[in-house]
Amino acid sequence: MLFLIIKRILLGFITLFIVSLITFVGTEILPGDACTTYLERQAFGEQLEACYRRLGLNVPAYERYVSWAVNAIQGDFGYSLSGEMPIKEVLGPRIKNSLVLASAAIFIGIPIALILGIVTALWRDKLPDVAISTVTIFAMTIPEFISATLLILIIAIWLEWLPGVVIVPTDVSFLKLLPNIILPVIAIAMIMTAHMARMVRSSVIQVMASEYVQMAILKGVPYWKMVFKHVLPNALLPAINVVALTIAWLLGGVVVTEVVFNYPGLGRLVIESISNRDLPTVQALAIILASIYVSINLLADLMTLMLNPRLKTLQIRK
Amino acid sequence: MSDIIQKVKNLSIGFKSKKGEEILILKNISTNIKKGETVGIVGESGSGKSTLALAMMGYVKHGLYTIGGECEFNSSNLLNIKSKDLEKIRGRKIAMIPQNAGQALTPNLKIGYQIDEALQLHSDLNYKEREKKISELLNKVRLPSPETIALRYPHELSGGQQQRVAVAMALAGTPDLLLLDEPTTGLDVTTQAHVLELLNFIAKDTGTSMVYVSHDLGAIAQVSDRIIVMYAGEIVLEGPSRDILKRPIHPYTHGLLKSIPKLSLAGLPESMPGSQPQPGTIQDGCSFFDRCNFSEEKCKNNSPQLEYLKELNTSVRCFHYKKLLKEIQINQSVSKIKKNSKDKEILNLSEVSISYAKQKLLDQIFNRISDDNPTVKDININIKKGETIALVGESGSGKSTILKSIAGLLRTKDGLIRFDESRNLSSDLKERDPNDLRIIQLIFQNPDESLNPNHTVEEIVAQPLKLYFGLKGEELKKNIIDLLQKVRLGEFYMSRYPRQLSGGEKQRVAVARAFAAKPDIILCDEVTSALDVSVQAAVLNLLQQLKEDFGTTYIFVSHDLAVVRAISDRVAVLYQGRLCEVGPSNDVYKFPSHPYTEVLLGAVLEPDPDIKPKLVAEDIVEEKPPEKGCSFQGRCSRIVGDICKTEIPPWQLTNTGNAIRCHIPIEVLQKEQFK
Question: Considering only A266-275, B213-222, B322-331, which range has the smallest mean pLDDT?
């Protein structure tokens, strides 16, 4: 078991290494570089040389990669070009803001998704299922930028209940941020919840049709006891991985939603730094997003391993 | 009439088709289950036997509904009472033992908890007493060390153990009626015999009534007092077990009993034409009309009623039972197999070992296999042209593994596979040339999985013809039609998809595909075990006919020893991947010399209440072959001493031509057999 965890963590690091290589090579291959973008028409002669020296772009690419990587491991991603400040400092509050947004969506979305999924499965083909399923399918199919725009239109502009666009400084305190995040959270949670509710529904239905549930019924186990003891533990196990994938999807969803709401999080930073050709920041963001992705999936796998007795013994036996 | 425990009255269950028609799965079933009696319900897949058993517990599967009638238990109709009351009856008064205990035990709950749950629901015992009771129950079903078993999860037990746990769980509520839905079907012969013996013991010990549902007349014969035969959702014959098996007065039962291969008879049994009609396709008249040898014009338009014959205490649904009454005994005629094997050797396995062990990195790099105790070891078999050799053994004996290696699907660790005396077949599929691939073809167990569901029959059969012979256009089509006719399928099957065929028809397509390559050797992996009994005989006959026409050699793997007896010329008995006995099937079956062969043959269930299985050895499941000595040492009842544990037994030849591997001198072994 321990060996397996170590192996998975090592594999995660290898993945991150490859991601860093790809982003580095990618930014190298692109025509132009940070200095030509920054200096625009003055990008020649003495000024360009000076810029290269200042940013350390005059050394061979592999040397730059090594020194960048060594620093990155220590949490130092170098300087952002546009902001002219350490990337670490740019990232800090942005990560915090995005984390607030994502975790709010997760903590609201997952319980609702579980309840909706279970209810629709247990009342399969009956009124609650038909009603909820129609809504979830609807919510699933609308892309988040449309639902976000609609939310702004209805709640912020027509009803004027909540601010439609976030206009607070990046490093604002949590309490001041709170009213601003309600609409973005709803926009993100809607799709995520709908997706997960569908997954949970089909998983529960599959388990309900299994022979061991039929056996439990024939054993005389009362309905709700059967649901909680025999159905849910087995149905929700595969859902863990789905939740992990959904959270990973959130990373992408957050980018679009943050832009629509002008929310000062990681997602907006991605768009900003790409359009500014702020390559060091893009690299840093790629690594951070990749690490979140890798660690969430790792966590999900370990949880499944922990909770599924079948996998646990298999691993021990090996 | 207080001795009747469950009364089924005019029960009809069905479903609504997409067109809105009402389609019946069960048609107007009436029967009574008496106290303390064991009733066998027998029928092929789709006959409605499981639906009937579940209805007796008041359970109707999702999608089905009750159309009429009732299942009366304790003077209440189980199909029409509150679920609260039903929960009190299920598990307490009526308990179920499911077909596949591996699927029917909840995977995330420990064995002990699952039994405890039944006890909590259906008894007033406190925690301490329940704990004791769980041990008692596990002991009763003869599971070793109950305390540790209770702490295990279902997947940590073997198939036989899981089935025993299911029995223990059903007994927890001390029910008056036990329903058993194919309780031994997925098990090995020896395990099956042990579980049946246990069930018989419980029936006698507790006086519980049992309803035993199975397609296997052999198992039914061993346990039941009374037999109900179902066909296409109807009861066609019902009566005392012995009479039904010895004097079946319904043509279906008659044909069914004739089509089952028996251990005592070599050669192929008579086959029954056609297959059971699908629900909803049955027209007016007798549902067995198409397949019946006795049918007349009258049967086509009039459906016979179930008629009770007082003098026989039997009910029968047939206009012609009187004709059958005259034909008192089942005259099982078997077509003797013509031996056309020549002395020319076609395939030779020498010193073949196969390993499933996960290889270390270094071995992977050097592309070698290292394993001191491989799954299959030292296989030496000489196969002659035109013979049918069968590999038999329980699950885990390595029989399918050997087939895979011959086909090239699994690399061998050591040893050579030689074709036609000179040509070495590479053990790696990628290194075999197209002709090597053509000469060996496989037919798989389950045609549902081995036929591509998106290809028509024409495409399926065309593939080997295109691949190996480059046929095109008219010539290709002619060949396909030819092949389909050879397997007795008409030209019109060409445009059909596998899902539009019955199980027997699908297997015929698989046979046609194998023969399309004009192979020298065909490997048959449990080819009849997914088929119904009445269809099985027809497929066996077809295989035999094709062999005579083409001179093909068959290597036949099956767990069904009676089927092997019917079709094979020679038998190789395997245990834990090691050969125990090889010889002409007549001799192996008549004089089983090796202790394991004796155990295996003793456990076979015959559809005859007078032939009881002999249980010689315990049905322990061994995970790995022993490192040293005889492979059968763990279960052998005739160990002669330490020599069995340390030395691999030598080959000994009997005067009848069997070769056996045992430390006991052959004369002694044979003398013991005849006692």
Answer: B322-331
Tokens of A198: 């569908």
The domain in which residue B413 lies consists of 345-568
What 3-state class would DSSP assign to A195?
A: helix
A30's CB contacts (< 8 A; 6+ apart) are none
What is the average pLDDT value for chain B, to the nearest integer? 86
Q: Does one domain contain both B331 and B355?
A: no
Residue B351 CB neighbour total at 10 angstroms: 12
Using the CB atoms, write b or e for B352-369: b if 16+ within 10 Å: bbbbeeeeeeeeeeeeeb
Say whether residue A315 is in contact with chain B using an 8 A CB cutoff: no
Closest CA to B662 of B564, B601, B573, B569: B573
Shortest CA distance to A113 belongs to which of A291, A238, A239? A239
Q: Are residues B357 and B326 in the same domain?
A: no
Q: What percent of chain B has pLDDT over 90?
A: 26
Residues B519, B497 within the same domain: yes
Last residue of a domain, one of B518, B542, B568: B568
Structure tokens at A275: 């359009």
Q: Give the pLDDT score at B559.
A: 85
Contact assessment for residue B64 and residue B25, using Cβ atoms and an 8 Å cutoff: yes
Query: Domain limits of chain A?
Result: 2-73, 93-317
The three-state DSSP-derived secondary structure of B314-338 is EEECCCCHHHHHHCCCCCCCEECCC
* Rounded Cα gap, residues B126 and A111, in angstroms: 36
Helix (H) or strand (E) holding B458: helix B457-469
> Could you say which of 1.10.443.10, 3.30.70.3450, 1.10.3720.10, 3.40.50.150 is the CATH number of the domain covering A93-317?
1.10.3720.10
Q: Are B308 and B385 members of one domain?
A: no
Q: What value does the CA radius of gyration of chain B take, rounded to a whole number of Å?
A: 26
- What is the pairing mode between strands B659-661 and B651-653? antiparallel
For residue range A86-116, list pLDDT tens digits in order: 777 778 888 888 888 888 888 888 899 999 9
Q: In this structure, is the dihedral angle defined by the CA atoms of residues B312, B314, B315 and B320, taken in order, positive or negative? A: negative
Question: Is B153 close to A310, i.e. CB distance below 8 A?
Answer: yes
ipTM of model over 0.90? no
At which of B289, B308, B336 does a domain end? B336
Instruction: Give the domain CATH number at B350.
Output: 3.40.50.300
Would the pLDDT of A269 be above 90?
Answer: no
Q: How far is A215 from chain B (nearest CA, A)?
A: 6
The predicted model gives B40-63 an average pLDDT of 89
- Phi and psi based region of residue B28 (left: phi greater than 0; alpha: psi -120 to 50; beta: remaining): left
B contact test, residue of A125, A219, A234 with most B CBs within 10 A: A219
Same domain, B507 and B594: no
User: What is the distance in angstroms between the Cα of B214 and the nearest Cα belonging to chain A?
Assistant: 17
B391 falls within a domain: yes
Left (φ > 0), alpha (ψ -120 to 50) or beta: where does B408 sit?
Answer: left
Which residues 181-220 of A are in CB contact (within 8 Å) with B? 209-220
**Percent of chain B scored above 70 by pLDDT?**
94
